[in-house]
Structure prediction request, 208 residues.
Amino acid sequence: MRKNAEYRAQARAALKGNWSQPVLAVLLVSFICSGVEGSFTYVILNRPWLSVLGILITMPLNYAMILSLLLFFRGQKDNCVENAFRLAFKPYSRAFLVEFFKMIMVLLGFALLIVPGIILELAYSMAEFIAYDEPEISEVETLRRSRRMMKGHKWQLFCLQFSFIGWILLSIISLGIGLLWVIPYMYVSMAAFYEDLRQEDPLTAVNE
Prediction:
């Protein structure tokens, strides 16, 4: 594994001169998700089932946005927006179930304490990438594979994600507008991290 500074440098190189598609993808997905959640807020107390409907929409979109940035890093720079929606529904069950199972496991961790929740979030952080690269395995298996793949690498990924805290704080000052650039920067860096991690994974080597 390389140093985190190298993953950030790879992300900057991929994004240089190509920010428009990732920023637009994040903007559209965020706008739709916030709109869905905001609309349901008014009726959630009287109609709790609407919160389930919101999850059915937002989870696949989150899944697809993450994968669109992986594909962007791999060279699909002109259809990032298309991928951010296409992958949410083709297949829909894949997108929803990966995010749903991941959410359940992470929430169980946070139900214990903050630290276990963070550890599980890091352990399952590669699930979306694995689900895309290995469509033949089940959604539950993607989480198992992610947990095994991240063994011994969770601290490095934590440091990589934490290195964006300054940009995130600046984004908060800008009323969240800066996140349109920070989110692609962070997830493309994570995509670079995943590509190295994948090369070290013995199961990936066998499959290839």
Observations:
- The chain has one domain: 4-199.
- The chain has twelve helices and no strands.
- The mean pLDDT is 89.
- The two ends are 19 Å apart (CA to CA).
